[in-house]
Amino acid sequence: MTFTLLLIQILNGAQYGVLLFLIAAGLTLVFGVMGFINLAHGVQYMIGAYLTFMFLSITGNFFVALLLGLITALVLGLALEVLIFRHLYDRDHLDQVLATFGIILFVNEAVKVIWGPGTLTIPTPEILSASLQLTDNLLYPVYRLSLIVVGIIVAAGLYLIVTKTRVGMLIRAGATNADMVSALGVNIRRLFTIVFGFGAMLAGFAGALAAPVFTIEPGMGDDLLIVAFVVIIIGGIGSIRGAFIAALLVGLIDTLGRTLATDAMNLIFDASAANQIGPSLASMLIYIFMAAVLFFRPQGLFPARGAV
Amino acid sequence: MRELSVAGAETLSGKQRIDRSLLIGICILAVLALTPFVTEIAGGNYVLNLVLKAMILAIAAVSLDLLIGHGGLVSFGHAAFLGLGSYVTGIALTEGITNALPVLGLVLLICGLFALITGAISLRTSGVYFIMITLAFGQMLFFSLSSLSSYGGDDGLTLWDSPVLFGQNVFLAGSGLFYSTLIILALTWFFVGRLSVSRFGRVLRAGKENPVRVGTMGFDIFHYRLIAYVIAGLLAGVAGFLTACHAEFISPSTAAWQNSGNLIIMVVLGGMGTRNGALLGAIFVVLIEESLSLITHEWKLIFGPLLVFIVLFAKGGLVSLITRPGGRA
Amino acid sequence: MSTILALEGLVKNFGSLRVTDDVSLELRRDECHALIGPNGAGKSTLINLVSGNLGVESGKVVLDGADISHYSMPQRAHAGLGRTFQITSIIPSFSVLENVALAAQAKAGSSLHFFGRAAEEQELNEKARSALTMLGLADRQDVRSADLSHGEHRLLELAMAIVGEPKALLLDEPMAGMGKGESETLTDTLLTLKKTMPMLLVEHDMEAVFKLADRISVLAYGRVVATGTPDEVRADEQARAAYLGSDTP
User: What ipTM score was computed for the predicted complex, to two decimals?
Assistant: First the structure.
């Protein structure tokens, strides 16, 4: 594989990783602080993309659409929390899985009804639609690069919030011992709602950012959600730092893996077999990685107890 | 001097409860057995196929209940066995193996191995980690099946033969398959019911409530859970075999995680850990999904909130509606 | 050999806190050996180390001559160790009889039986019933154990531990939360039990301790500060300091 191809794959992997992080960050906080398994987090991502699409067709400006989409996604997320999710925090995981599964069914269908079952696309915003000459042979889209940059900025911001601010400290304390925090007089209800809303917003943000790059379609968040769970298990539940590093690792392993796997299989098997086994093996890679982490270090690479 | 116990302490007389639930289960199976006759008069093939679909899923649901209801192991990847079973069947048939015995043998062997390996890894975790890792293994299988391009890949594969047992077309879609499935369902239901009250089942059920105590008594709960996991995987694999025979088509979507979720819904709605819960749940869910879809194409708009509603307000499951509160069906 | 259970140099750390500090102890075949000490001394931790609920960092646990230090919890149960928990740990949805019968089942051959109704196995039920009778719970045998009173829970705990006829019994505050009458009854039961089952008893109830114990060890800050007969310990300087503080005359 040429250097150019390798570089492209690394960049693509980083971009995928960044997107995964934005989704996983909300997921890991919600699960870490509230012990709540939110399968419906994937539809938050999807809602972000659809809302951006909708506002774009109304306003014509990507960034305005992004902002409006984010706010609406936040409001919807908070509505879900107040109406349904907060009644599930005390229930066992099975109940949470079933209820959030019901929400996935509903929202995926609703989206189909409103926008139709087909795939939609958004063009990349004008300013960012150019490509940057990275090397002699490589032209990489500016938009994708900015995605990576934005992701890193958000990660840094999140890390600062969680480690340096008072709210962040409460979040970390809540992740370690919610009852204690509540007993100390903190309005744990409000804290949970803030954490949840913030997580939903991040997921919606990811969806909006991803819209110009990937297609928009019903169920687009579901498979990503599972990968996000893989990320937080590898990174350590409740840990932002863990989510970031694990997300990048998973993004890179998955992207590079897909190209390398077929190449590697070509060395052993003939072309047709390699083309079959290669992608198959590639899709297994991140799960094998997760299984290995669970086996050797079940609390994750950067467990949240005490650290972030 | 001993304190008086808390008022309202419940006395159990196990035998009475067991006999009643046995009777209910047999009634359900009897009703199912009559379906082909009923559909001759009204409903026709459409209803027959619907009931057949429900019975096949019931086998998978009963096997999942062994894990969830009896073992406390919430597997979110059980549909993987349905998918694996159906694919082993489909591939075998496509490659010319039409004798049911070797096909079933292969299904059991491969599903058993998959269950053994994934179970051995997954069962080292518990709680949400277990849910996630079973989900992940399910996904892994789903993607693997999707990438089998010579067997249809994403689109799936039509099957042109059906397995033959001792020269009889007992697995051919139609009344042959119906009765074969009914027999397998009856056997599965009976077997899991007996398993539940056996020594093995008692350890498993105790481990669901208090694994530490069970370990202190002297049981290595991991072994019991792994055996349960393999048994459940084998049974669901057989359900996958029947799925392939019924649809005459195999598709990776059989192993999709949404299908795993569907199975969990059946188990929980029916009543976890009860003798007839999974059976009722499967029938109920298939019928509900079908009737809702007749009302509107967008039936999930109703089903989704219904699910949320049931979780929030009605946890005992269907079985609690037909027995006295506090009883076990 | 008159020692049935020997703890040799047990060490356990929780992070940088040394909870069990080089503890050595022996339980003789015919004795009740009580373990007392102020809160936080590490008594429950010690019991957990012996039963296998926690792993030791260093040191040995020897039961009837066999080194069980690296045995898993279930393996130690089969080697002959029985224990009760400080916080009642039973199977709530099972009846009282079934809880004890299950404990008996663990020692009665293989449980890889997939047919046959376990609840109808007469031998197991008989063994369970005699353990329950000894503790005065026999007439509650069909009650769902979640519905028992606290005192009855503590008795059930004990029944489950003794039905397997362990070589050595570890009792972690069996009288916790019991009223005076109940404690006295239990103490008498333990006195009878002591004759056939050596026990390591962690307790705060001093009346029971002095009635039951042949020897007492005092644990403070994770280490044994005194061992001896009840009279010896009562008079021991270090033991008193551990309980009352070092400015005792």
Answer: 0.90
